[in-house]
Amino acid sequence: MTVAVCSFFHAPTGTWSHLVSDFDTRVAAVIDPVLDFDLESGRASSESAQWMLDHALGHNLRIEWILETHAHADHLTAADWLKRKLGGVPKIGIGKGIVEVQAHFANAFGLADFRADGSQFDRLFDDGERIALGPLEIEVLATPGHTSDGVTYRIGDALFVGDTLFAPERGTGRCDFPGADAATQYRSIKRIYASPDDTRVFLCHDYPPAGAEPTAQTTVGAEKAGNIQLNDRTSESDYIAFRKTRDATLSPPRLLEPSLRANIRAGRLE
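and the corresponding structure tokens:
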């Protein structure tokens, strides 16, 4: 089944958010929405999320789910903002691995009164869980490795892969965050590659070179054939060695602390 997907790019963080809907019932889900945040002033704003919301309302879409692929370390989620703007109607969902992520960062940030039990979210998903989106079905696939809470959402002929995969020419997500593991990510990506080659793959990030347009989607076949870091010819040992070397050169995300402080709370700001 082909589903309607409209993608929105947040250039300051290189993030794609996706609005998924059923043609007939107008029921919709938002995946990985972004809240604008200025690090220097510490101020958050909602221009990007408002753009997506205006599009949804202008097309008479009824947002029932706000889905996070993981607790992002490079941008603040707009999940709580969207839920409040829509009168509390949409449910915010994330994978059950969020509890482990919450426990780590509550300790790292000294959040003594924080409840690391996932209760800040409306739903914690198990691997293989299926939820309704009108006549559509959302299947949850656990795809940890980049983080311990990573999930991919399968909706019709589309996969929403978070930071597990990037466009073929840009590779895969880093594996040096707490709870991350390159071998686990290898197996998660192989699980994605088991889907039919024409399956659409919607990305959470793209970082195009100057003058190039960002890539919102690719296909399983394109990733298997041409991903520069993990294609269908890459061995697990080679991938682990590559990620270890590559990740040692990467700096922490610029918005890591403000992002995770908000994102382990489903977007609620302190």
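(Above: one complete record from the training split.) The chain is about 25% helix and 25% strand.
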